[in-house]
Amino acid sequence: MEPTVGPRLSDADFFAKIDTTRPGLVGIPEAVAHGDFATARRLFAAEVRRSLQPERFFRIEREFRGAHFMKEGETVEQAAERILSGELISCSTPHKFEGEVDWFINPTFNQYREWTWQLSRHPEWGILAERYRATGDERFAEAFVRFFRSWVRQAIVPENADGGATLCWRTIEAGIRMGGVWQWALHSFYRSPHFTDDVLIDWYKSVWEHGWRLRNFHRTGNWLIMEMNGLAQIGILYPQFLDAPAWKQYAFDRLVEELSAQVYPDGWQVELSTGYHQVDINNYQWLIDVCRAYDEPIPPAFREGLERMHTVNMRMMMPDGRLPDVNDGGWYDVARLMKSAVADYPARADFLWARTKGAQGCLPAITSHAFPYAGYYVMRAGWEPDAMWALLDAGHFGYGHQHEDKLNLLLHAWGRLLLTEAGNYAYDASEMRRYVLSTRAHNTIRVDGQDQNRRLGYNRAAFDVTVPSDGSLRSTPEYDVAEGVYTEGYGPLAETAVTHRRKVIFVKAHSRVSLPGSCVIVIDRLTPADDAAHTYQVLWHLNSDTAAVDGLVVRSADPDQPNLTIIPAQVDGMTVRVVAGQEAPEFQGWKAIKNHQQGEYAPTPTAIYEWTVAGPARLVTLLYPTRAEQVCPVAALGASSDIAATEIRVTMADGQVIDLDEEDLSPP
After folding, report:
1. Whether 604 contacts 589, CB under 8 Å
2. How far apart are CA 217 and CA 111, in angstroms?
3. Which of 83, 196, 228, 320 is least crowded, fewest Cβ atoms below 10 Å from its Cβ?
4. Phi/psi of residue 307, each to 5°?
5. What are the pLDDT digits (tens) for 101-147?
6. What are residue 183's phi and psi, to 5 degrees?
7. Cα distance between residue 441 and residue 431, in whole Å
């Protein structure tokens, strides 16, 4: 019969899973044999309280803070008082519970499923634990016990459900709970009079159920790393379980394997997201911290793998110190991400430089960098805060959390992100979510009003981490050339077959190219598989409040700020319009302003160049960044639309003409 109240484990089943040869537990078998579960419970609880080592556990540094479960500007003291009142926050949306928490409720206006799932991550328990350790105020312990008992009674572990199933027992949440906040809660509250023997037994029953579910129903990708972190921590911190050694070994084995299976040789996590790259790093690091605190051997592969992943963060960094928000990523501050890297790799002076924002350490040895497997190509004029930086995404679709954005281009110069994208938005069913996933939310090309559609032919089972991307980067001290190609079709059935090749020439200041200052030349070649006319849209998302249009020239026009001028070569029939904050007939001209939060997006001027042509075509576009109040010195750009052409003519505002040739800008 299905239980109506959790935990699922009976006392008899639970004590059968305990290593009763351990000191303090040897009397349990006799008590169980006589049906004296009260004595068995008392013996078990006493031994747990004796053997827990909070002084060792709290060597681990971890804070539970986050915009998803705290109000903007809220202190931990204010958050704790709010939690005591019954107001909990999930996915940045608060809800006030009157009486017991309903762990299955969904109060969001659009039934956003993540709200209920993430409610069961229990970050509030970490906040209550922090305040309890700081004050000894039993209100925090009483509230924690109340929350735990209501959850464990309502959230009955499923016997045979996929890792992504159920509202409270998805394995991602199970891994997150075991990999962090539950362990902080146990070591903070176990001595409280509110944390009775009965509460402790229910706690250990539930932890065993977590271990069983994580061992048998785990998934892949970043979920697996969180799941195995949680399972390994159970194996280390709950030695009373007979299964603990096997669970620990299994988790470590899988985590070692995943450093080869889930991390490209160039260091990128296979989902190719700046967000989930950090998820993997953080979960490995949290487990490393637990291992160090408990003298648990750390697999050597962890060290080598994490060094490569930290190196990715440093080499992708924009001049303002942030990561670009690629795929379901985020504009993360790299200095904060490098804290453990500096401690773990003291010989890496470049890590120290990134951590201290240049105050200490040494500049990275290289500027521009190709990630040949991920397909990200970073072009950089230098490491100074006002240096020009660009990123071409010419890589794989990614293992998960992908956007339809191949050949997307981002640009940062003079201390400001000038060319942006829509970013990351909540995982709901909104138009904004559909927009951020689409080609039209990025700086690349649409065909016949249709987006790229790599997802249609994507086969996760065939994913191979050893396959490099089909892009390239060639770098010289004067200029870089990055290239990539998109061939996988446009539209719902990916049946619109046009090959899009993009070349990005990143011209550094004082280059022999003779242009006055740093700029970027983008050359797009489009080759349809048929003879029909196709309509192309080239999209440029300006990170600005305003934009000005002069013929085909578009520039951001923010006063007292660096700006970007977009100058395309004239193509027959080309038009341009700037869209910002459009909702119909489709979303266009938006950017997410808070990572992964509902309702947090704002207009951003988006230049849409459109023209129709039959047969192969070439378009050349100049992106010229200017300092605050500087006027772009380029007046016009000339380039043949013949796909085989290579000449480019730049006409300066003072009448000077500069003739360039692509072939001359192709370093070996």
Report:
1. yes
2. 26
3. 196
4. -60, -40
5. 999 999 999 999 999 999 999 999 999 999 999 999 999 999 999 99
6. -70, -35
7. 12
- Residue 37: both structure tokens together: 């579960």
Amino acid 512: pLDDT: 64
- Measured CA to CA, the distance from residue 289 to residue 32 in angstroms comes to 37
| Tokens representing residue 156 in the block | 């009955």
Nearest-angstrom CA–CA distance, 1 and 556: 66
Which contacts (CB < 8 Å, 24+ apart) does range 228-231 have?
228/175, 228/252, 228/254, 228/255, 228/258, 229/175, 229/178, 229/179, 229/255, 229/283, 229/284, 229/286, 229/287, 230/174, 230/175, 230/176, 230/177, 230/178, 230/179, 231/175, 231/178
Q: What is the pTM of this model?
A: 0.95
* Paired tokens of 121: 């991550």
Residue 668, pLDDT score: 61
Q: Output the DSSP codes for 235-285.
A: HHH-TTBTTHHHHHHHHHHHHHHHHHHSB-TTS-BTT--HHHHHHHHHHHH
Give the tens place of pLDDT for each residue, 507-564: 997 666 677 779 999 999 999 999 999 999 999 999 999 999 999 999 999 999 999 9
Three-class SS state of 502:
strand
What average pLDDT does the segment 499-506 reach?
Answer: 98
Residue 428, token pair as written in the block = 């709901």
Contact 254, 227 (CB under 8 A): no
